[in-house]
Amino acid sequence: MKNAALFIAAVLAAPVLATRADDKVDFAKSIQPILEKRCIECHGPKKQKGDLRLDSKDAALKGGKDAKAIVPEKLSDSDMVRRISLPPGDDDIMPPKGDPLTKDQIELIKKWISEGAEWPQGLVLGGESEKKEEGKPSGTGKATASSKKQKAPGQEFANLTPTKDTAAEQEAIKKLGVLGISVRPIAQNLQWKEATVRPQDTNKTSEAIALLKDIPSLVDLNLAKLNLKDDDLKSISSLSNLQRLHLENNPVTDAGLANLKGLTNLEYLNLYNTQVGDAGIENLKGMKNLMALYLWQSKVTDDGAAKLKKELPEAMINRGEELKLMAKVEEKKEEKKDGKSDEKKDEAKKEKKDEKAEPKKEEKKEDKAAEAKKEDNDSKKEEKKSDDKKSDEKKPDEKKADEAKKADEKKAGQ
């Protein structure tokens, strides 16, 4: 990968094929391009970071020194799945260079592994076609797009100043080991080294960083999440062979970044979530090898980033635009969800009102029935009174009739 333009082109060229749930992932079309363009650089014939190779089936299934990268049909046991799914800027994310894999690429790899991680027998990625090109067998006059020669192992470090493992360097590595920090070769038979500084005693961070100045063979250094002081960076100002440097999640400022001015071999620099601003990145203008610079959640302005881009036109300067866009999309989704939630709440309230209203209607019906019953009872009482009255009115007449009858009976007896 010569420059940012080629890198971006390679990423865009990697096919991400939409597959239906019932379609099996095609290794050659969907997985091989991702492995060749994003993984083989660090886990192939040239370099085997973590003792892991991903250019052949046997090597990929064997895994590295820390974990199994691919365990067919077991996503939870496949360390590759964990590492490609980590958030941007994480120490362990794969691939460490450039942008993270896209969501579609991650889903393809997960689906491929869950289906059994099928790999054509005998296929070696980036290997067979190159051997044919180098040997120029009869009948092949032109190289195909996938048969470009790779550089010989270690060629990517050709512009660095060779160093020998001096006694001072070995002593510094030994002292760092006592603090729980491992400094190791980036690949077998190479003098160049990598280190992630994580002292067991956090009070010894500055002491550990001070030891780094005696290890000039460092090309890959991770100083993320260490609560660094600006003065701590003075200890790495002489490490001119550094190609990759992680400073993310540290409170370093423009003053600290001035110490990086001489690190002209830097290809990758992560300043995510730092206090670095426009004045700080002025110190990077001479880094013509810089391919990837991460500035998200720093104090760098649009104008400052644009000015640096003019000085380093081939560099990929990432200010988190994709993540900001994703955040906006998520916000809109949440707003829609909230809107639907409010609608549901309104419907629920309406239903409760209706439920409350129904008993009132029933109560009204009961009240009307009670009134009707009362009126009926009152009507009957009135009728009874009327009958009693009539009865009372009839009693004098009946008495007179009885008296008359008795008088008649008396006369008849005489």
Give structural notes.
Mean pLDDT is 77; it is low at 1-22 and 127-154. Helix 11 (302-311) links the parallel strand 6 and strand 7. 44% of the residues lie in helices and 6% in strands. It has helices at residues 4-13, 27-38, 57-62, 79-84, 103-114, 128-135, 167-178, 205-211, 254-257, 278-281, 302-311, 321-413, and strands spanning 183-185, 193-196, 218-222, 244-246, 268-270, 292-294, 316-318. With 414 residues, the protein is mainly alpha-helical. The chain has 12 helices and 7 strands. Strands 1-2-3-4-5-6-7 form a 7-stranded mixed sheet. The chain starts with a helix and ends with a helix.
Describe, in short, the structure shown:
With 414 residues, the chain is mostly helical. It has helices at residues 4-13, 27-38, 57-62, 79-84, 103-114, 128-135, 167-178, 205-211, 254-257, 278-281, 302-311, 321-413; strands spanning 183-185, 193-196, 218-222, 244-246, 268-270, 292-294, 316-318. Strands 1-2-3-4-5-6-7 form a 7-stranded mixed sheet.
Key attributes of the depicted protein:
single chain; 414 residues; mainly alpha; elongated
Count of strand segments: 7
Shape: elongated
Helix content: 40-55%
Strand order of the main beta sheet, please?
1-2-3-4-5-6-7
What does the average pLDDT come to? 77
Q: Give the SSE order as H and E letters.
A: HHHHHHHEEHEEHEHEHEH
In percent terms, what proportion of residues is strand?
5-15%
Number of helical stretches of at least 4 residues? 12
